[in-house]
Input
Amino acid sequence: MADRKVRLKLLIDTSSQKVLFAEAGKEFVDFLFYLLALPVGTVIRLLTKKCMVGCLGNLYESIENLSQTYIQPNQDKNSLLEPEAPALIQVPLLLTNEVQQAPTSSKKFYICTGCNRSISDDPSATCYSCLKSTYSPSHRMINTEVRYIAPTTVQTSSSDDDGFVKGVVTYMVMDDLVVKPMSTISSITLLNKFNVKDVGVLEEKVVDLTMAEGLKLLNASLQSKAVLTTVFLGNTGA
Output
């Protein structure tokens, strides 16, 4: 399968070798915002333990090495090592094959047959709405299994109705990942902010963000305030 790509247009200050900002569409912004929804265990697994800053990689490795003998019988190490992303959040294009979705469709739910209103995922739960009713005790238990049909959340094609932001807007993504709607006025204001006197030093560059760059971006976002410069220009000292 071909590597999926998201296209960006960078505005680069060639005199300082720094990305001022990127013009981006919905797919890239959805990707950035989705990073906030990733469980910490998933971030460590995607970046690998050695790439993690601080001690989180050591925690991850400790759980890996810990014998199941020390784990509670109702717990599973994989719930921490390979946690599942929220089932009702759309996985962005670049992470479709890498992030595991919570299997909501396989989770069991139960309903109270007394009032047919209370639902639980615990078949031993009691319906508080029916406690003072004349129903028999058996009808006060939320123990009748019902089927939950989960919506399809993982798609390989992008739709303007999916994700977090609307697709009719072009977005400006700063080097430090500040995101805002793109406008001519904001672009001019930004050039003034960076004290750009000679527009001749500015260069536009179109780049494709693949899964590999996506992981680099995730890693750089944990360590740097110049993420786009680090990922696309390799300038770690920006």
